[in-house]
Amino acid sequence: MRAANVHSPDTSENAWDGFRPFRALARDAGMTRLRRTALAALPFFAIAGAAAAQGQPDVAALRDAALKDDLAWDITEGLTTEVGPRLAGTEAEKRARDWAVKRLTALGFANVRVEPFDMPVWVRGEEKAEIVSPFPQPLVLAALGNSGATPANGITAEVVGFESFADLQAAPASAVKGKIVFVSHAMKATQDGSGYGPFGTARRQGPSEASRKGAAAIVIRSIGTDYHRNPHTGVQTFAEGVKPIPAAALSLPDAEQLQRILKRGQPVRMKLVLTPRNIGKRQSGNVIAEVPGSDPAAGVVLVACHLDSWDQGTGAIDDAAGCGIVTAAAKRIAEAGVPRRTIRIVWFGAEEVGLFGGLDYRAKRGGEKHAIIAESDFGADRVWKVNSQGPATAKPAIDRLVAALSPLGIVQGSTTRASGSDIGPMAADGMSTIELSQDGTRYFDYHHTPDDTLDKVDPEQLRQNVAAWTAMLAVMAHAPEELASPVRPRN
Amino acid sequence: MRAANVHSPDTSENAWDGFRPFRALARDAGMTRLRRTALAALPFFAIAGAAAAQGQPDVAALRDAALKDDLAWDITEGLTTEVGPRLAGTEAEKRARDWAVKRLTALGFANVRVEPFDMPVWVRGEEKAEIVSPFPQPLVLAALGNSGATPANGITAEVVGFESFADLQAAPASAVKGKIVFVSHAMKATQDGSGYGPFGTARRQGPSEASRKGAAAIVIRSIGTDYHRNPHTGVQTFAEGVKPIPAAALSLPDAEQLQRILKRGQPVRMKLVLTPRNIGKRQSGNVIAEVPGSDPAAGVVLVACHLDSWDQGTGAIDDAAGCGIVTAAAKRIAEAGVPRRTIRIVWFGAEEVGLFGGLDYRAKRGGEKHAIIAESDFGADRVWKVNSQGPATAKPAIDRLVAALSPLGIVQGSTTRASGSDIGPMAADGMSTIELSQDGTRYFDYHHTPDDTLDKVDPEQLRQNVAAWTAMLAVMAHAPEELASPVRPRN
C-alpha cells in the first residue's frame, strides 16, 4: 500500500483535495535528477523525495521511514556528550550555541543564526543540610533557582512541616517566623504531567509565601516522582518586594525521612548551608535554522525545543531530545522536497530559568505570520495524544494529521487548546498551535535532576516521536488551507 | 489442618521422630498458665506457644503467622530513621549500638551486650571530578574505602581507559604511568548476585594494580546495575607495600559518558579532587542478644546481620533489614516457647569496611559449639533459595527445613556449600551453615549508594523473609539431631 502510494501518489489515502504543485520544486536540480532516475533503484528515502517533488508528499511513507531515524539520537547524544550541562547564560550554554550552529549548518539548513539576548544569571553554590537533633544525619537537597543564600557557615533553625502549600498559606506567621519551613505533598506520576501544575506551587510560590511569613528558609519535597537521592531543582521567582530566603528541594527519600522524624514529635533542628549567587546579566540566545518554503505568504511553521539545561544533569530529556526530534523531522521534510511553508527550527536559550528565549522570540518575531507553532519539551517518550488550536480553516489539515498519527498509536485530544513552554505565551496569544503530547509517566522521575542523562532516552520511543513530528510537518508545511490564526501578538 | 495440629500436635505433618520434650518448659509459669486456659479463646500466637510448650513447635503455623510480621519493618524503619547512616568506628555507629541495645532489651531478649573491638577508620572528604578537555563538564563519583587523597586543589591528568580489570592487568606500565586509569566493565544484574565477585575485582584489586603501574589515580565504573547519579562506594585495601592512590567510582551514567568521550578519540584530561582521611583506630563493636535454650550442649544457633552501614545512604537494605529479619524471627521463636538450642542474635559492627565484626567474633567465640550459623545481608527482597552445609547427621533437619520453606516459593540449592559475609570465615572453617538466599536482582541498584534508603524495602517481601527465617529457627533451634560440624575454628 505504501509502495503503491509512492508510485501513484494520486491514489494515496493521505492525499487531499486542492493540494498545489510546488513550482519551486521544478527548479530544484536535485529533484530534476531524481526524476530522471529509475525510481526502483533508489533507496526508499529518495523515492519519498521524488514523490514530494511531483507535488504530493506521501505522509504515511515519510512517517514510517522516520521510524528508522538515527538523527534525533545523534543530536541528543552529541549535545549531551560534547557539551553536557548548559545552564542558561553561562559559558557552557555559549558552547552549546556554537555546537548547535555548527551542527545545523552541517545538516544543510538555511539561515542558521543566533539571536542573542541578555538575561540575569543565578549560579548554584555549596548546598548541604543536616538534621542537628534529635537524630543527627545529613539530608540531600538542591537549591531552587533564584534561591537566597545562607551565610557561608549556614543557619540552624527548627523545622516546621506542612503537608501542602495550602497548609503553609493557611498558617499564621507566628507558626513560621524564624523557622525552616518544610512542605511535603503527594504528587504522583501522570501520563499527561498534570500533577506538575498544582503540586509545583510548592516550588513556585512556596518560597515567597514562606518569606512573607518571616521564615528563615524553606525546603520542599522535590516536585518529582522518583525515589532516588537526586533532588529536583527548578525555577522560582520571589514576588515583588519579598526578601529572598534560602530555598531548596529535598529528594523524595530525604523528604520522607524528614517527615518520619517530624512524626516522632520532638522538636527537629536543621542546619542549612546554601551559597548560590546572582552574577548579573549575561548573554543567552536562540539558535534558529530554516527550511525555506515556496510560499512566503503562507506563514512559517515553527518547531521548537530548548537548548539550555539545568546545571546538574546533561539535559538529555530536557531538552536535547526535543531538539533532536524537531530537527530530525524538519530534515526529513527538507530532503523530501521544498515545502510550501518555511519551516523554522528554534532551539530556544534560557528556557529553564524563565522562558527568556521564548519571550525574546515573541518580542522580536511574534508579529510575523506563523501558520503553526509547536514545541517538543516533555522528554523523549512516545507521543500519545495530539492537541490543537486554530481557526476553522485549519480543520481539514488537523483531520489529516490525526489520521496520519493514528497508526503510531496517537489519539486526538483537545481541538481548542494546545500549548508548550517557550511557545506558551504565543499560544496564549492565540497563535495556531499543535501539541504532540509525550507520555510523561516517568518524566518527573528525572526532570531537573542530575539523573537527566542520555541513558534515560529510549531510542525506539525517540524514533516514534520523529515519525509523529515528520507526519505533522508533512501535513502542515504543505497544507493548502489557511492555518494561521488571525489573532497574533503585537510586538 | 494447621488448627488440628495445634490441638493434636502428635499428628502434625511437621512433627519428627525423636523430638524431646523440654523439661525447662514445665518450669515456665507463663506456659503453665497457658495450659490452664481454654485454647480456643486465645489469640493464634499464644496457641502456637502452647503447642511448643507441649514439645511440638508447629513450624508451618509459626511460618505463616510470620507473614503478618511488623517487627522487622519497625526495626528497619527505626534504625534508618533514628540513626541513619552509621559508618563503622564513628560516633554514628556508637549511637546505632546504643539504639540496638535499647531495642533488643525492650524486646525481652537475654544477655544483651556489646562486645567492643578497635578498627582503623577512614572517612570521606571532598570528592569532585570534571572533564577538563575536550568537553568540559563535571562527573559524579564517590571515593572507594581506603582511597588515597589528592592535594586539596586536586590533580589533573590524562585518562586511559580499560574495558576490564584484566585489560588493566595486561597493560604495560608505560601506558598507565602518571595517568588516571579508568576501568569500565559490563556487570549486569543477576538473581544470585554472582556478578559481584568477578566484576568487583575492578574495585577490590584495581587500585593496587593501577598504583603498581604508576597511575596517578583510578576511577572505576561503579560495581552496580542502576542508571542513577549515585556512585557505588565499597571497600578496597591497597596490597602490602603498594602506595595508596586516589581511587573512586563513577556512577553508571558518568562512566558511560566518559566512555563516549574517550571514543571520540581525542586526549581526555580529568581533574580530580578527593580528600578522604585515615583517622586512626576507633572503637566498634558487635551487639549480641540471646534466646536461651534448654540444652547448652546442643550448641548455639547464630543468626546474624550487620549494624554498620556505608556513610551516604541510611543502610536500609544493607543491612538494617537483615537485622530486622533475624531479630523478628528470633522473637517469634522465643514467644513460642523455650527452644532446645540457644539462639544468638549478632548485629555485627564494621562489616562494610573489612568484616571486622565477624573476625572479632570468630576470634573470641569461634571455639564455642555452634550448631548452625546463618546471616541475612543481601537486602530485603524475598528468599528464593536455601543453601546449606553441615554433617550427615543434620540432613533430616535440612530436609524438614526445605519442606517448610517450599510453600514460600523457596527452592533447595546447594547442600554442600553455604556462606555469608561476616560469617564467611567461619563458614569457610567448616561450621554448619544455612544460607537463605535473597533475590538480588535489584540489590546492586542501591548497594553502597546514597540510594540505600527505607523506600527500597518492600514490606511484603520483608515479611516473606521473616517467615523463612522463622521456619528455619523453628526447625534448627528445636532439632533433636546433631547439627554442628565437628570442624571448628581454633581461637
TrEMBL record, chains A, B:
<keyword id="KW-0378">Hydrolase</keyword>
<dbReference type="GO" id="GO:0005764">
    <property type="term" value="C:lysosome"/>
</dbReference>
<keyword id="KW-0645">Protease</keyword>
<keyword id="KW-0325">Glycoprotein</keyword>
<keyword id="KW-0732">Signal</keyword>
<keyword id="KW-0333">Golgi apparatus</keyword>
<dbReference type="GO" id="GO:0005576">
    <property type="term" value="C:extracellular region"/>
</dbReference>
<keyword id="KW-0964">Secreted</keyword>
<dbReference type="InterPro" id="IPR007484">
    <property type="entry name" value="Peptidase_M28"/>
</dbReference>
<dbReference type="GO" id="GO:0004180">
    <property type="term" value="F:carboxypeptidase activity"/>
</dbReference>
<keyword id="KW-0865">Zymogen</keyword>
<dbReference type="InterPro" id="IPR039866">
    <property type="entry name" value="CPQ"/>
</dbReference>
<keyword id="KW-0482">Metalloprotease</keyword>
<keyword id="KW-0121">Carboxypeptidase</keyword>
<feature type="domain" description="Peptidase M28">
    <location>
        <begin position="286"/>
        <end position="469"/>
    </location>
</feature>
<keyword id="KW-0479">Metal-binding</keyword>
<keyword id="KW-0862">Zinc</keyword>
<dbReference type="Pfam" id="PF04389">
    <property type="entry name" value="Peptidase_M28"/>
</dbReference>
<protein>
    <recommendedName>
        <fullName>Carboxypeptidase Q</fullName>
    </recommendedName>
</protein>
<comment type="subunit">
    <text>Homodimer. The monomeric form is inactive while the homodimer is active.</text>
</comment>
<keyword id="KW-0458">Lysosome</keyword>
<keyword id="KW-0256">Endoplasmic reticulum</keyword>
<dbReference type="GO" id="GO:0006508">
    <property type="term" value="P:proteolysis"/>
</dbReference>
<dbReference type="GO" id="GO:0070573">
    <property type="term" value="F:metallodipeptidase activity"/>
</dbReference>
<dbReference type="GO" id="GO:0046872">
    <property type="term" value="F:metal ion binding"/>
</dbReference>
